[in-house]
Every structure is written in C-alpha cells, then in structure tokens.
Amino acid sequence: MSPSQAEVARARILLVAAAVLWSLSGAFTRVMTTDTTGVIGFSAHEPPMSPLAMAFWRVLWGGLIMLPFARPTRACLTWRLVPVGLAFAFMNATFVSALALGSSASAVLLQYTAPLWVALIGWVFWQEKIDRGTLASLALAMGGVGCLVMEGWEGGSLVPVGLAVASGVGFALVLLGLGWLKDLPGTPVTVFNFLTGAAVLLPMVLVQQAPSPGQVAFMAAFGFFQMGLPYLMAARALRVVPAREASLITLLEPLLNPVWSRLLARDAEPVTIWLVLGALGILGALITRALPWSKRESPS
C-alpha cells in the first residue's frame, strides 16, 4: 500500500529534523573544546577532555538512549556484527578527533565522501561497473578532497584533515557492513555499533582524568540529540521516503554543521578559498550521485 501524501510530508519533516540534529556535532564539540561562555553563557571545556573521551561518551549515551527501542532476536546473534562494530568504532573515533582538533566543515565534508569510497571499493575488489554519473561524482569529490588537503597543508592542520579522510573511509566500511547485515533489524545493529564503539575506547578513557558531572550531563545531551534521536527519526522516515531523496535531504547536515560551529567559535572555523572549493566539490559530487542519471536504481 502506497503511503499517503500526509505520511510522505511527515517523513520528509522527520528527515529534515534528523539532518539538523546530526549537524550539531560540531557545535557540541566546540562547547567541549573552547570557552563558549561569552556566546551561550555556558561552556564544558574544563577540565580538558580528550577527543577519544568525547567519542566514548557520545556513543555510550547514544547507545544507552536507543537501547529501550532495540528488540534483538536470535537472528541478531551473529559474528558478522563484530567487524561492522569495529569499523563503526574506528569511524567514530576518527570523526570526533577530526572535529575536536580541526575545522568542523572539513571533518563533516570529508566524512561525507563515504558513498564515493564505497563505489571505489566496489570497483577495485568486486569489479563493479562505474557509470558516468558515479565517475563524475568521483572526479568532483577527489577534487574537493584535494582542496581540503591543501587547506590543511597551508594551515598546518594536516593531522585533523587526515583523521577526517580516515573517518570517511571508516564510514564507507560501515555502509558496506550495514549492507552485509541488511537481513537483521536495524535498531539492534545500531545499538550494538554504538556500544561497541564505547567498549573499544573504554580502556583509554579509564586512564584519563574523570570528567565533571556537568560534562557528563552535556555529553548525555550530545548522545541523545546528535546520535540517538536523529537515528530513530531517520529510520522511521526511511520507511516512506526513497533512499535517493533522503540522501539529498540529509545534505543539510554538512551545510549547517560549520554554521553552528562558527557561531560558537569563529576563530576555530576560518573560511578559506580552499574550504569553499572543497565544499563545492564534495557537495557537488553528492548531489550528482543522488540525481537519477539512469532508470536503474542504485543500491541504497
């Protein structure tokens, strides 16, 4: 039975809301790494928290918040969850580290290259054909990545750019892994990934200075509003909205992420010509990839 127009409209609103919440990752990270008291009257940067500790608390709270919505079945008890969970842990650690150490714009844009890394991996390892639309997307994306690398080179911030590139590759591995696990219910898989990401980072967090109660509460909000809630909203919306349309709507995330970060910490988010060119390249690549170039529907 086809969804009604009202159901489609509600699903689109949910996707827009999810994209806005996802875009808050840079803003949450800025509150944890810089003094934002003068802007919002609140800051959680003291005592200093390492990027890996932030990555730990983010997915721990996200997983705990989503846990009541997970209904695992016997089918979920499979060894295939482990490599996907480890890929997610790698992606989470590198992404949050890139956000904390460098520009939010570069971090989120480079993570969004993941679908293009998926296409490259499929071509290299499984000899999957690359159509003209995908080829154009790859060319635009690689140009955008090159511009952001140049920005990092000139700004002396190659480490966060490298971490952001690694997070994009990690995200691609997660996407491939989720395709491998498509026979399993999505929410339990997501909860497993979140909690695995926390478990991997736990030994490193235990040897660091304990966060303040205010920081723990703030990271709980980070996990709820930026991780758990938007995932649930997007999962509900994707029952109605096609994946191709959803991928275009969620491009709001890389557009809004640097805006919130710049409002909170202008000095940490410089706008350079390399950043603008990189953004145009990567966003252009994602839009090109999402457009219906042929009648054949690509995998979600």
Summarize this structure briefly.
By secondary structure, the protein is an all-alpha fold.
Q: What does this molecule look like?
A:
- By secondary structure, this protein is an all-alpha fold.
- The chain has one domain (5-290).
- The chain has 14 helices and no strands.
- It has helices at residues 5-22, 25-33, 37-40, 51-66, 81-101, 104-111, 114-126, 132-155, 158-180, 186-206, 213-237, 243-249, 252-264, 273-290.
- Helix 6 (104-111) packs parallel to helix 14 (273-290) and helix 8 runs antiparallel to helix 9.
- The chain is globular.
- The model is unreliable at 294-300 (pLDDT under 50).
The Cα radius of gyration reads 19 Å
| Average pLDDT taken over every residue | 86
Number of helices: 14
Estimated helix fraction: over 70%
Topology:
Elements (H helix, E strand, L loop, with lengths): L4 H18 L2 H9 L3 H4 L10 H16 L14 H21 L2 H8 L2 H13 L5 H24 L2 H23 L5 H21 L6 H25 L5 H7 L2 H13 L8 H18 L10
Helix pairs in contact: 1-11, 1-13, 2-13, 4-5, 4-10, 4-11, 5-6, 5-9, 5-10, 6-9, 6-13, 6-14, 7-9, 8-9, 8-14
